[in-house]
Amino acid sequence: MTATAPGDEQLWSRCAGCASLLYRKRLRRNLDVCPECGTHARLDAPVRLAQLVDPGSFAALPDRAAAVDPIGFVDVLPYPRRLAAARAGTGLAEAVVCGTGAVGGHPCALAVMDFRFLGGSLGCAVGELITRTAERALAERVPLVLVTASGGARMQEGVLSLMQMATVSQAIAALREAGVPSVSVLTDPTYGGVAASFATNTDVVIAESGARMGFAGPRVIRQVTGRDLPEGFQTAEFLLRHGQVDMVVPRHALRGRLAALLATTGGGEQRGARRRVPRPERPPVDATPAGVPHGGERDAWETVRLARHPGRPTTLDYLESAFDGFVELHGDRLGADCPAVVGGPAHLGGRPVMVIGHQKGHTTAELMARNFGMASPAGHRKALRLMRLAARWGLPVVTLVDTPGADPGVGAEEQGQAAAIAENILTLTTLPTPVVAVVTGEGGSGGALALAVADRVLMLEHAVYSVISPEGCAAILWPDRSAAPQAARALRLTSADLHRLGVVDALVAEPAPAAHQDPSAAVRAVREAVLAHLLPLLDVPTATLVRRRRQRFRRFGAARLGTRVGAR
Questions:
Q1: What is the spatial distance between Cα 327 and Cα 122, in angstroms, rounded to a whole number?
Q2: Nearest to 532 by CA among 275, 281, 278
Q3: Are 52 and 103 in contact (CB under 8 A)?
Q4: What span, in angstroms and rounded, lies between the C-alpha atoms of 429 and 427?
Q5: What is the pLDDT of residues 286-302, one digit of tens each?
Q6: At what angle do helices 377-393 and 417-430 cross, to 10 degrees?
Q7: What is the pTM assigned to this prediction?
Q8: Which residues pair with 457 in a beta bridge?
Q9: How many CB atoms lie within 10 A of CB 166?
Q10: SS (H, E, C) 464-485
Q11: Quick check: 516 and 312 in contact, CB under 8 A?
Q12: Per-residue pLDDT tens for 355-406?
């Protein structure tokens, strides 16, 4: 937004997006978002704090920004004169305001950058102030919230400004090691050394609508490459599509989304420790004996068809009804966001957890948009990022498995599908937090196992779990694919079969005739089963938990399976 004339600058503003003339008070009531086109005007740090922090809760850190001129830089003006002008023009001591406060009642430490002050550039004083804020968050074990607005490192301080990227990143690393959450909010613009350090190496990265972020600015890229840039290049939506941010949030929803996120993260604990919260009452467990479905065992091929029914609850259905306060996190931070995998923190029975699952859909359009729940390498890497985040925050992990298998496409192979699955499996074997997996529909091959190396593996009554699809097995070992029903029976892929083999710990009974007939009842059954199996794991010491998980999968070796291997 820009003022129309010197005498009217306090009354009227012109939108930089649509050029509408806007009454300034109305614009401020709308959080400086144009009511005509939605353009988000840049905010100074004090206004940003007023919008985000609970009234009366903010307390500035006592640390003062030192005036530094480390290399005696002079261009048209000496650097100290530029600093003095910036201080006079903004009323700030430096390009960041730091302190402690609360968002939605949740305490945190905050560092909010101000682009008015020398383009929000990262200099020695700014780096020192943000580092001290991170150290305060660590000392008080409260989340760190960074709001970035910067053109990059401060040229007038030479290579010493470059060093601030490492200084602040080191402080973020200390928070990670201690399990203290960190969140950055990207605003317009965030570039250069800030984008390439603390703005993007926090646990969660939120982009405000209208934000732009990148290492090099568009003008520099055009000059270097001589190419036109894609439409929407480096915008918040572009970043979301390319897996660089967890979410894009309009300004009016930003405070609420931050509060919801902080509610699931809480304060940090020692690395590997799991947060203690008041326990919910243990829910009643289904009285059906494990391995004995309500209606007796169905034919394997009929079970396959039920497991694939488009009306079965999906991961997002479970998250909407069985869990509370779900905050979806997007992207693998490497270049993509796979829609076949969804995940993020939520609450289950009052307990914060990390939920990760395959997402199919109910309609043909949804199935195609989600690639039928077949994860790409980006999907597995997103899941991996959330697993590691859960370990840092001390959250148990709940996975919901429903996939025909991993994406078998050429692109997936080029992007390292095998290695991505392997890394997930390896990480789950050592994850220092409880893991409960539920096979809710199809459990197809390595794509399923990438989310199912768990302390407890549950399976819905009419779900299936197999090394290969019946059609694929028939195509390889039978004369034609029409033998898929026969292959399904031979593969022993039903829940009852897998419970007898010890692959599955317990079955979750479905409403008759199957989950698609009464999705709400199926969701309730899964919720109760997960709670019943998760709660006992919360008291198990981390070392014991990991050892038992490894022993659980070690028993599938031929020497330990013994007579069960040849029994069939």
A1: 31
A2: 281
A3: yes
A4: 5
A5: 434 343 444 456 899 99
A6: 20
A7: 0.85
A8: 437
A9: 13
A10: EEECCCHHHHHHHHCCCHHHHH
A11: yes
A12: 999 999 999 999 999 999 999 999 999 999 999 999 999 999 999 999 999 9
